[in-house]
Amino acid sequence: MKLIINPEIFQKFAPVQIGVVVLENINNRSDIDAWFDAEYAAVSGAVADKFEGIELSAYPVIRRWRDIYKSFGEKDARSSIEALIKRVKNGKGLYRVNPLVDIYNIASLKFELPAGGENLDAIGTDMELTMAAGGEKFQPIGDAPVESVNAGEVIYKFGDTVVCRNFNYRESDVTKLTDDTTRAIIVFEDAIGDPPAQGYGETNLRAAMDYIGEQTGRLLGARVVKTAILTADNNAVEL
Fold it and tell me: d(Cα 8, Cα 181) in Å, to the nearest integer?
């Protein structure tokens, strides 16, 4: 089974690249409350200081994602990183979901990258990041009604099942991470290139991927099976 990025994604949205971390042996019932409270306090404090008095729409990462969404006709959706920063900036905090989701949300904030995670045991065939033909069906998380996907929208899918809408804007109930998840793929989306990560001695995308591996290993007993950065020159990875 593979994750395959349609080459057109890289052509249309350059310099987009996708960071992938594949995990197994996850104990997603671990107690990470103490870690989360400490890490969130540090990250949220840094975010609040950085964005005080700044209009989010003018910030380069957020502006870039808004432009990408508008390019395929999505006017109202906002990237997941914008949503997270906005919550912190407004003092609302993060929703706690389960340990693995909580960890990648912290990583998303820390490295300013949209992130998402899927239960690998719920995916039956190759997963693709591609443009929708239009009309594909998407089951949002929870009891929300099934939605029809717009033509040209960027989606993750396997077979006829839509996994995420608008890159990682919205996740599917079908492949969501749960307390029982033991195998998962975590995806980071970099839309502006990969500058050095301040204080990490490496690029931002790679630092985010390493952070996930380190924290899930320490907190959840997870093992990193594979990592990859997918680009126009390397658009697929075996999961």
Answer: 32
Given a cut of 80, whether residue 60 has pLDDT beyond it is yes
| Token pair belonging to 156 | 């993750």
CATH at residue 218: 3.50.40.10
Structure tokens of 32? 């990470």
Structural domain that includes position 47 = 2-238
Closest CA to 3 of 158, 128, 155, 165: 128
Average pLDDT for residues 73-94, to the nearest whole number? Answer: 90
Q: What b/e string do you get for 43-76 counting C-beta neighbours within 10 Å, with b at 16 or more?
A: bbeebeeebeeeeeeebebbebbbebbeebebee
The token duo for 97 is 């979901």
Quote the pTM value: 0.94
**For the chain, what is the domain count?**
1
Report residue 155's pLDDT band, with 50, 70 and 90 as the boundaries. Answer: very high
Quick one: residue 93, left, alpha or beta (phi over 0 = left, psi -120 to 50 = alpha)?
Answer: left
For the chain, what is the total number of helices (H) and then of strands (E)?
A: 6, 12
